[in-house]
Amino acid sequence: MKLINLSQILLALTAIAAGANLHARNIAQYNTIPLPHEVEAMPGRPFIMGADVKIAAGQGLENEARFMADYLSSGLRGFSTGDIELRADLEDSNPEAYTINIDGDRVVINGASAAGVFYGVQTLRKSLPSRLDADGTVELPAVRIYDRPRFAYRGMHLDVARHFFGVDDVKTYIDMIALHGGNTLHMHLTDDQGWRVEISKYPLLTQIGSHRDGTIVGRTGPEYDNIPVDGFYTRDQIADIIAYAAERHIQVIPEIDLPSHMVAALASYPELGCTGGPYEVWQRWGIKEDVLCPGKDATMQFITDVLDEVMDMFPAPYIHIGGDECPKTRWKECPDCQARIKELGLVEKEGVSPEAQLQGYVTAHACDVVRRHGKSAIGWDEVLECQVPDDAIVMSWHGVTGATEGTKRGHRVILTPSQYCYFDYFQSPDGPDEPFAVGGLTSVEKVYSLEPCPPEMPDSHKSLVMGVQANLWTEYIKTFDHVQYNVLPRMAALAEVQWVEPDKKDYENFRSRVPHIMSAYDAAGYNYAKHIGDVKVHYETDRDLHALMMTCTALPGYDIRYTLDGSEPTVGSQLYTGPVALDRDCIVKVNTFHGDGIPGRAVCDTLGINALTFGKVSLVNEPYYVYAFQGAPQLVDGLRGTKYFRTGRWLGFSVKDVDATVELDSPATLSTVTFNTVVKPEDALADAESAEVYGSSDGHTFELLASQTYEPDDPKADHHISGHTLTFEPRTLKKLRIVIRPVKKLPADHPQGGWPALLFIDELQAR
Predict the structure, then answer these.
(1) pTM across the whole model
(2) Residues 107-124 pLDDT 10s
(3) Which of 62, 169, 305, 325 is an active site residue?
(4) Based on the domain organization, do 568 and 631 belong to the same domain?
(5) Which of 186, 188, 249, 261 is catalytic?
(6) Rounded CA gap, 618 and 662, in Å?
(7) 325 is catalytic
(8) 473 and 524 housed in the same domain
(9) Final residue of a domain: which of 543, 574, 602?
(10) Secondary structure class of 697 (helix, strand, coil)
(11) pLDDT for 36-71, tens place per residue?
């Protein structure tokens, strides 16, 4: 065995706030992120770690020993009474499994492979406290740890096409993945806005396609910033990134998104498009109608050549071929594409157009190229619409539906559902206080709540679920600091989804462990969001008390204080000691206070208790999946939304009517129904087109009580809430049906002209 002497040991990570007294004595804790599968305290003396500790590395584990030495590299004084031994002879069916056994004489990390040893090193690293007393040694209590990841594929995605990030940034991103137990980096290398990888046979892809003249300001413009965006990776740089990742047991999967999202390639080689151009590297976001022309043999050869070169560069067993968001407009008009359709004998079949089948032809061709290299192709879940080959892997981003359908057809699947795993979404409802984002709301808690094998998936299909990945699209992310902010600490929640068995997951327990890993972020100089430290306020309907029961939680060591009149809480405000019954309209503000009296960030909620608050609500049409949040009950939960529509207080609908029926808790005499909408033209949020209220006194027969039609929005209107009241003669009712119709198509002078509007509804109220 090779011995590595540690002259100094840096303890890079902290334990949780609840264990602060232990930290004063320099005692390690083993409740890391991700949480190990089994942690068993053992009798006997602790291991005392000091400056002369030696790492004994088994054959082939020099790499892992170097990481241990680097992670424990400076800061401790004192002496050790034992050694750290790294071995890789653990017999386990999971190749990434490991054990850690600690007693008074030594620490033994044993893996089923070198990768398992690496994860054991990470867990030991993350068990150590960050602050040391004058003694300078660390006490590691005797313990037996057994651990293995739930999923074999544990990925993070990075879009380097929209905004480019250099090699050093990518390496830092890889270190972040390693810290969280991930094993895959998915690099989105090409898109309409930039081509970022050198292809020897097509040099113009980087000479022309890696540069754009500027970027649209905001989501829809009309201004452009005129700031050039450049950058691509040479073959040597790709090799450097791959080697760096491999040392950390991380595979790098490239994505060449085709046949759509190819405008940068068309700008470089316009003959590959249906119209021949001219094209320019796109400065806007969204879906461009210009795509590769599969009717031309040169295009199919281009796909072959590019994939051949990329697979030669990337040794991973997978390559991502895109397949998403492909308009067929050009193909319908292109004589070459129509000739190809005729040649292939493609006709409309079971509602699938010839053009959609033509995409299947492109996908099958790409899969054939990949297969010849002994690799597997991954495609976004749209590939299920075009007869994708059986051996293709489906990456499901439209919720979990694509994964469920993919496994039903026998495909292996990777889950990246946007409402849980899109880290370019807002992570807090703080509106203008948050960095600009594409939309949506994906909190740490939302990420943590993902179950990759949902109940509707048959048990026999669950073995086809390879794992989970989070995606970071960078349309609005220009700097690496912003990348880190959007990813951390959501990556910690993702790590537990990827690693921990569902019966061992507990969000509040996880939340108490987050300060532990935040110290790692601090030690590494990472920029991260701190919302998880805010007080968490939850409301539950109590129909017996006719009240909302407010419960609050905070990290250990913090007092919680609240007011009910909208005033800011102070150290003298009401102390929260348990659930609070709220049975009237009020403005709740809650905040935390540490021992020094310094407040955290206040949470504010407006409660509107009314006849519908305690009713049972059902919807004919489901909300738009990105803004479904908790579903129908949110419409009558007594909580009013602010104009920041991503808070989870609103439900978003598109195209389909809001058609809600509420069964009142008891008959009530009513004469008004009110609701609010959010108007924000730049995000396609529009007011309702019309609304109707129907009432039932017997619970069965409904009659129209009131209706309204609303004027179209001013397309230049500022972001605001629009309130609506429908009035009718007082009636004693058992049920109400409320129908609110969205704008199906925004007018041409609207910033999102031609698109369907998003209709956001908050509390339905009746009085």
Answers:
(1) 0.85
(2) 999 999 999 999 999 999
(3) 325
(4) no
(5) 261
(6) 7
(7) yes
(8) yes
(9) 602
(10) coil
(11) 999 999 999 999 887 678 888 989 999 999 998 888
